[in-house]
Amino acid sequence: MIPSDAQQRWQTSRAPLGDRSAYKKVWELQSHDLDVAALAVAGHTDEATLELTARGTIDMLKSTVGVEPEDVILEIGCGIGRVGVPLSKECLHWFGADISSGMLRHAATRLRERPNTTLVELSTVGLQEFPLDSFDLVYCTIVFMHLLEWDRYRYCEEAFRVLRPGGRCYVDNFTVDTETGWKIFLESYSYPIDRRPAHISMSSSREELRTYLTRAGFTEVRVHDLANGLIAATGRKPE
Ligand SMILES: C[S@@+](CC[C@H](N)C(=O)[O-])C[C@H]1O[C@@H](n2cnc3c(N)ncnc32)[C@H](O)[C@@H]1O
Is the CB of 170 under 6 A from ligand 1? Predict the structure, then answer.
């Protein structure tokens, strides 16, 4: 059950479409309280549903790139730590990076009992805060739909840089040729032209995601049709 006042606060926290590249501004606006942030990130506010959907994401990671107990993992666009809370119990260290300090503030509260976690605020698009060869797995989930194409590719290039040789990468988005993807498309389509918000969801094609990972230097690039209607592309940094 979503509190209706939270729904209302979320509706009034939206920047206009012209601000799409102003990611910090757009996502700070959507993170001023935990309920609004949870709605923006996951579409619901209760902890039980957050946990359930996070399990679904972890299952997707396990079935595509694998999750190992000795992995040092980075999530790009980690939001309120929806995935980080349970995933940090299954790896050596979990890093969450996000452009929004407000999202990270909520993540810090939710992760306060997880000592093997670190949150990092990104100054701009890219992973300049992290050195070369730092991670075994870099993933980015339900973020590409909010980014412009060039920024999606930038994160693929940056994931390649910060992964160790042999490290794995996972990125996802919705695509219009699945039933779930079409529903998301129709939600975006329903906005009047002059009221489209900056974070409005935009799809990727399988070839787009495959091209980004291949051009960024990854090998073993694969595209996966996921159970929830999303598509994911995965790759490995050569040894
Ligand atoms: C829909 S939420 C998904 C959060 C998280 N990945 C999850 O699955 O729960 C999108 C997140 O991406 C972050 N974000 C938006 N633009 C970004 C950018 N350019 N770089 C990094 N993070 C960004 C937002 O602040 C927000 O936390």
Answer: no
User: 2-61, pLDDT tens digit by residue?
Assistant: 666 777 776 777 788 888 999 999 999 989 889 889 988 888 888 899 999 999 999 999
Closest residue to atom 12 of ligand 1, CA basis: 77
In the block, residue with structure tokens 């032209």:
193
What is the pTM (predicted TM-score) of this model? 0.95
Give kind and range of the element (H or E) at residue 138: strand 135-140
Handedness of CA 150, 71, 64, 106 (dihedral sign): negative
Å from CA of 79 to ligand 1 middle: 5
Domain boundaries, the chain: 4-236
Domain topology for 4-236? Rossmann fold (3.40.50)
How would you label 190-226 residue by residue, b for 16+ Cβ within 10 Å and e otherwise? eeeeeebbbbbbbbbebebbbebbeebebeebebbeb
171-222 per-position pLDDT tens digit: 999 999 999 999 999 999 999 999 999 999 999 999 999 999 999 999 999 9
Is the shortest distance between the CB of 98 and ligand 1 below 6 Å?
Answer: yes
CB 188 within 8 A of CB 201: yes
Closest atom of ligand 1 to 98 CA is 22
